[in-house]
Amino acid sequence: MEPLSNKLNLPYKVIDLNDTQTLLSVLKEVKVVLHAAGPFQFTAKQMIEACLKSHTHYIDINGDIAVFEMLKQYDHAAKQAGIMVLPGAGFDVVPTDCIAVLLKKILPDALSLKLAFATVGGGLSHGTAITMINKLGEGGNCRKDGMIVKVPLGKNGFWVDFGLKKLFVMSIPWGDISTAYFSTGIPDIETYTGISPSIYKILRLQPLFNWMLRTPSIRNIIKKKINSRPAGPTDEMRSKATSLIWGQVINSMGKTATARMNGPDGYTLTTHSALLITQKILQGNFVTGYQTPASAFGEDLVLEIPGVSREIVNQAS
């Protein structure tokens, strides 16, 4: 923290999120907080409740379905406090949310939505990896008839043409299971990520070992392995990596609309999108209450990020 503060010539403060009074006194000094202290399942509640008391706008870079659903419950309180609550201001879920809203406008009567993402190059930060470890053995989720339901991790898989490359993807419990439903109202939503077909075949066997993956001893072994590695992808890795996004909607008549997008790696995109949203709020451009990136700023928000390009592959008529 101190080296970065010195490098940027900016002040910093270290605060225990459970020290409510100190947290409140600091939040009263700012108009918006960009919450980046994951895993968010352990930190979001303390921060949002303090923001409501200090009338500070809350945004984060969370990607956990359960955290989105929890924060959604503060919609009324946020409106009363005159603040915006916008989780998912990073790679999860800015590009996918924007594609979801775009596709909903193209096919307004869409009943199902599939979203997929992949990264060519790059890697994971410790925070992202630990969040994933905490979900080991828990299976997956999808949205069915408007409800979040449990399904096996990797229940479905297929090949996606991302434009720059064709990749195999499998179903995972991505944040859009919560946010895309809020943004579009589409009742059936599935989310996917790129993975090797051979690894996918192995992961299909995970339900046999879920009981073991949920044990603290197994999770701690994996966490120690993660902590022994670099904190995240290097600047060089990020500069060479590319993020790929794909989305498709279908209506009751079988009509489809498809779009895809590519841009900088997820961590670089997160930096730009989170700062872009923060800047908009500071300029007075915000909607009070619970929001998603595209519900607050529209489907073209992602196009304001350097290096992002988007293509509509097919448009229902």
Main features:
seven-stranded mixed beta sheet, Dihydrodipicolinate Reductase, domain 2, 14 helices, 13 strands, alpha/beta, 317 residues, 38% helix, four-stranded parallel beta sheet, globular, Rossmann fold
Describe the protein's architecture and organization.
This protein is α/β, with parallel strands linked by helices and 317 residues long. The protein folds into two domains: 2-90 and 270-297, NAD(P)-binding Rossmann-like Domain (Rossmann fold, 3-Layer(aba) Sandwich); 94-265 and 301-314, Dihydrodipicolinate Reductase, domain 2, CATH 3.30.360. The chain is built from 14 helices and 13 strands. The chain has helices at 2-8, 20-27, 44-54, 65-72, 75-81, 94-106, 126-133, 176-184, 197-203, 210-213, 216-227, 235-240, 266-282, 293-297, and strands at residues 32-35, 57-60, 84-86, 112-120, 140-144, 147-151, 157-161, 166-171, 188-194, 242-250, 256-264, 289-290, 309-314. The strands form three sheets. It has a seven-stranded mixed β-sheet with strand order 7-8-9-4-10-11-13. Strands 1-2-3-12 form a four-stranded parallel β-sheet, sandwiched between helices. A hairpin with a 2-residue loop joins strand 5 (140-144) and strand 6 (147-151). Helix 2 crosses helix 3 (44-54) and helix 4 crosses helix 8. It starts with a helix and ends with a strand. The model is unreliable at 124-134 (pLDDT under 50).
